[in-house]
Amino acid sequence: MHLKNTIILSGIASLVMLCSPMVSNIQTINVNAKHIKSQHKVTKHAKKQVKLPDGVLRYHPENSFKYAASNLSSENATDEVNIPTGYPFKFDNGKIDMPDNFNTKFIKESYQINKFHPKTSDVNEKVNTRSLTKSQQDEITQYAANLINSARHKISNNNAYTADLTLDDNTTNFTNDIVKKYNEDHWKSAYTDDVKGINDVTRNYGMFLCPYCLKNNIQNYDQVIHSKLKNVDSMAHVKEAFYGAICTMLFNDDEYSWGRTDKLLSADFLNESNEGLGVGIDNMSKLHFVIVPHSYSKEYNNGEDN
């Protein structure tokens, strides 16, 4: 019995010795496979690190709205608003005509033909969206005015049916006080305006208050739209948000009965000597577009014009 156990143990020992080189080889193969896989990952990763030209940065879109943005910046980037085929608001009889009924197929195309292009300097510039400096606000306002004016020119075939939107301090101050009211009133609603706040500011500035608006609890100065801007963001993200907001209000305002489109195009105004534009961002990241036609201004309504 003892001899039999000895033979069995000896056989097992021999089998282990025979298998040991095989186990060692398997371990070596596994280690080599992992090393090769690791090398492949490093090589693959290295291929993605393409050196960009001077003055070009990678850009990650802000995506407040569905309009596309380039994923690379450039030093001299410019933007424009393109008018989709079948856009129903046209220049007719000296003004922009806005029919009551129309086909909305153009909305889809508007997303295909309009794209934001970030400037490298804007990607690098940080903005406190809750407290814009005057130079930053002026730059954003002029950017928005240029886009809206270009859309007006294209729709009217460059027939000037009213004055271009311009940057002026009175409209900027008016806008800032409206934004301040929204902040004080903690106005979170996405579908209603802070009408009382806006009309109170309008009274303080001595500007025209529409009787129909007062009677029906509406206001006729401020167009508001929500964004996803952070408290501190880049100038490129801010401009992208305003670009998307303008395209949305011009080409996809069906939910608001195209009322914001009407205001941006100034469809109800003819031959204004000037129109002021103010833009702002409130604490809820809502974007404000305040348009003041000259005939609504304090100077006009107080008879201070010459």
TrEMBL record:
Top-rank taxon: Bacteria
Name of this chain's protein: SEC10/PgrA surface exclusion domain-containing protein
Gene source species: Apilactobacillus xinyiensis
High-level lineage: Bacteria, Bacillati, Bacillota, Bacilli, Lactobacillales
